Amino acid sequence: LTAERLRFCLSAKAPFNANSVFFVDVEKGSPITSNNMRSRICMRRMHHSMPVFDLIRSFFLPAIKNQTANLKELDPLSKKEYITALIEYGMNLDASLACVNERVKLSPCRDISQEILRSSSLAIEASHNLKQLGAIEECACRWMRQISLEIQEVDMVREESVNSGPHTEVRFWKQRTTRFSSLLKQLQAKEVKNVLLALKEAHSKTTATWTELDNRVAAIYIEAQQNAKYLQILARQCRPLYEYRIVSVNLNSIHY
Length: 256
Known about the structure:
Order of helices and strands: EHEHHHHHHHHH
Organism: Schistocephalus solidus
GO molecular function: dynein intermediate chain binding; dynein light intermediate chain binding
Structural class: mainly alpha
InterPro entries: DHC, Dynein_heavy_tail
Shape: elongated
Helix content: 55-70%
Oligomer: single chain
Strand order of the largest sheet: 1-2
Number of strands: 2
CATH architecture of the largest domain: Up-down Bundle
GO cellular component, one term: axonemal dynein complex
Protein name: DHC_N1 domain-containing protein
Strand content: under 5%
């Protein structure tokens, strides 16, 4: 923040579209003094592109933990359950937002008329025309190259960061599930099926490679879906990892 751009405003009027420093008073009533400032004020530098889970975990969660005024009617157990629910909400929201951009779109077949792509009878007729069949095979090969790149990404070794944990793993498999689910839906589209129908009618050798890739995509999707479901259950047992420091975790508090 430079002196030229420094502005002070209430949170309700804060322009949350640039780098900002927020100060939140977690208590109300008594004045802020040098003695209670550390427990009363939570400060965080934020940007509008900050992930939601990071915002909740690094800013709102510490403020809620230090707060006694608005949560004083809750007993310690209820307050702990509320904080746990907030953490889980942030994790699920973060995973959902990460999945939004996980979409695969097959490239369009510009050299083939839409009538052929949408009609199975016209697709069969096109398979007997060498020029049209060549365009259909080129389109299928382009799709197969695109699918192969997606599969290669799966086969690559994934790098883990020092902050990786159960939540990171759940989000990873949810993202992969979403990505390959979108790819499977496109492989079931009418245009794709008609291209494959024309290739089968012409006894094209590309159909064998297509079938192999199709089976691999389905297997990757099933694996990702099952892993996401299993890890979602396992992550619930790892709450202490997000609520406490590792050195203070009591293993007896983890119930299976």
